Amino acid sequence: MQIWLDTIDFTTIHHARQLGVLAGVTTNPSILAAAERPVEEVLDALLDLQPGLLAVQVTSADPAVQLLQARRLAAKSGRIIVKVPAVGAGFQTMATLEREGIPTLATAIFESRQIVLAGQLGVRYAAPYINRIEQAGRDAALLLRESQQILDRYGQPTVIMGAAVKSAEQFMQCARAGIGAATLPADTYRLLFASSPELDAALQRFDSAWSANPLAAGSALFSAT
């Protein structure tokens, strides 16, 4: 499963890139609006910081304006994938862009029907909002499994990208469902590396046993210098 980062936290992006697990970076209007730099400058920095794709969302509900914005973004870099809300005329926008060879990401997904339609259109990625689906009282894990099964049944290459992933357990739901990608905010990404009381206790037992034996603790092979 690909790991994307849904953030403009450059330190976190650099960590994931150095670790070798970063497939790309996603943004949205809220993320870019919160930056204290011009949008164009932020996008350039994100493209320079990592070699993967960069997802950028259109900001208008008007299909003509969506196409205008999308074409500008595509002209800026061949590594930009255009995010379009999967509602109303957004489907027509994505269909047009995909025919033009501009890759799209269907966003703001709360129901499997949106993913099914995205698959029919050949959209590259479809991003269901995992945490928000659960907050609405629905089973996000079931939606992921059923949607992936439908895409597989009809041989549609659209990649489901779990979005709005707010916990390590939600990340694991994405992995267990067999979807192709998940995009994580910086805080959730850091949770993947977090310790636990059980793990801390196990490591402490190792340290205590090692320190208690002078022959082990004094080994030149394991010296810190």
TrEMBL record:
Question: Superkingdom of the source?
Answer: Bacteria
An example of a Pfam family matching this protein is: TAL_FSA
> InterPro entries this protein is in?
Aldolase_TIM, TAL/FSA, Transaldolase_AS
Instruction: For this UniProt record, give its keywords in alphabetical order, as a comma-separated list.
Output: Schiff base
Q: Which Gene3D superfamilies match?
A: Aldolase class I
The record, for SUPFAM superfamilies, names: Aldolase
- Per its record, how is this protein called by name? Transaldolase family protein
